[in-house]
Amino acid sequence: WRTWSVAPGISGYAWEVAQPRAVVLLQHGYADYALRFVSEHHQLIPRLCDAGISVYAYDLHGHGYSAGTRGVVDVRQAVADHLVARQLLATSQSQPLFLVGHSLGGLITAASLLSNPTGVAGVIMMSPALPQSFPAPLRGIVNLLARMAPQRAVPLPAAPEAGLSRDADYIARATADPIIYHDQVPLLV
């Protein structure tokens, strides 16, 4: 792979194949990072490359190797970054562009697509973190708290890694990975 520049402070990566049939923009989920899709997540990136598909991905602000407060995600900024990444690919690639989003990356991908549906051949969302329907007053309170204290943690009943999988070995690898965000989820996500 090679580095790929999306925006200042963002660590981006490109796995380019000779004569690609298609291009994928992959967006990881909360607490995760793009390079894990090489060795984990069923080795999705090598499998796509083996199928003749070039893959581009980047770490969200505050995740992986990107700059920012660990674990804090401004979804509006993340969607803006995704739109920039899509534009970069649209101007540099002629193959069909597919968007892949996992968990929070699925939400970001969906919002990016709703903001601008042009130039996308298809979308794949894996366990997307699509918002539930909350009553307006509760949504308003949470949004206000997130703006006032974005790094304030939301208590969780278990460690974030516990809900990733039923595979104990996978959970152990995720728990031992120092690049994954392991703390409580902040209000601004």
Order of helices and strands: EEEHHEHEHEHEHE
Shape: globular
**Could you describe the largest sheet, including whether it forms a barrel?**
6 strands, mixed
Give the radius of gyration.
17 Å
How many distinct helices?
A: 6
DSSP E strands, number: 8
Helix/strand structural class? alpha/beta
Tell me, rounded to a whole number, the average pLDDT: 85
Describe the structure.
There is one protein chain. The chain has 189 residues and is α/β, with parallel strands linked by helices. The chain contains six helices and eight strands. It has helices at residues 36-39, 44-50, 75-92, 104-115, 136-148, 168-176, and strands at residues 2-3, 12-15, 22-27, 53-58, 97-102, 122-126, 153-154, 185-186. The longest helix has 18 residues, at 75-92.
Question: Main traits of this protein?
Answer:
189 residues; alpha/beta; 6-stranded mixed β-sheet; two-stranded antiparallel sheet; globular
Question: How are the SSEs placed, and which strands pair?
Answer:
Elements lengths: L1 E2 L8 E4 L6 E6 L8 H4 L4 H7 L2 E6 L16 H18 L4 E6 L1 H12 L6 E5 L9 H13 L4 E2 L13 H9 L8 E2 L3
Parallel strand pairs: 3-4, 3-5, 5-6
Antiparallel strand pairs: 1-2, 2-4, 7-8
Helix pairs in contact: 3-4
